[in-house]
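request received
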Amino acid sequence: MNYPNGKKGLKNTSKVPSQDTKECSKIQYGKRGMKLEEEIDQSNQYFRIENIAVIHKKPTPIQIVDVHYPKRQKAVIKEAYFRKPSTTDYNGVYNGRYIDFEAKETKNKTSFPLNNIHDHQVSHMEQVSNQQGICFLLIKFSYHDSVFLLPFKQFMVYWDRFKSGGKKSITLQEIERDGYLIPIQFRPRINYIKIVDQLITMESEALK
Amino acid sequence: MNYPNGKKGLKNTSKVPSQDTKECSKIQYGKRGMKLEEEIDQSNQYFRIENIAVIHKKPTPIQIVDVHYPKRQKAVIKEAYFRKPSTTDYNGVYNGRYIDFEAKETKNKTSFPLNNIHDHQVSHMEQVSNQQGICFLLIKFSYHDSVFLLPFKQFMVYWDRFKSGGKKSITLQEIERDGYLIPIQFRPRINYIKIVDQLITMESEALK
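response:
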């Protein structure tokens, strides 16, 4: 693969910011790339319009503490807190099959840190996987402007390594080997459904 | 069917209240029945624990306007508003298949009013249906303490009737005829997966 050089790497991995929070403005991104969430949203919109798949981002879970009702129609939430999501951010349907994934972006040049994936998200993905759902991570290396689909089963190898005291990250090399690079296109920006098709084909061949 | 008598019917239909809002306290329920959302949550928990299905309620969509950051870890939302959901409330996976439904409760004795189903929810269900997702409504008549599964395709007949100037509701009789009564059990409280199984069987027989 051909990666551009001469850029300074940043170490932190950031949760894909939610559309409905103001956090977006707090996170810095490279100049070249769009934010991963935006790219996925645009792609999902394309998939819906073209009747290819129906996949949505789940709303950010909020713990509401205080609501005022000045009028019946316009309740104002006056105190609320962000909650940790108990599932992944995206799910939906493609040709009858259940699709479920988490999207993460890192500014790290050579590896994807595992510390911003929550335990309960992993157990959710495990449950989904046991129910024959199609489950994966979309990982963006913003420095290289490259997005990978890493199937959950491959991810689990590195998660288990991490949890048994090993490396706290997955190297880019490992992701290149075990995942699928998704070419960035114009429309849809991230055609992850194309890779899902490959996964379904491989799955049905394995069953033969 | 055997319905108890002697109760006063209430006319309004209420949106299943969200766990994470305070609205719950604003809605009155009959003494006998649990709230439908609670019953579904308990059932979904059972399905997850028993590895039967992985189905979650989506968080309530919130438009956040103002967030304070007194500490990094504990952001406080100071102003936010409820948004109309663009999808249904529940989705997940059962044996590889995508499941999607909306849950509504009515205190009406003889019919289910259609005015609390949004247009965009119906178009979402239409999209899901076109993608071979398993899509339905769970409708609870709290007066009778009875819960029905109404497949989306059957629902659409009445929605179209409503949209072309006809009846603004589906009668209980119509729901009894076109839907499936879900017996209330101890565990899981609402075994809608049993009906989903029937739908899948009928679907595969129709394809033969």
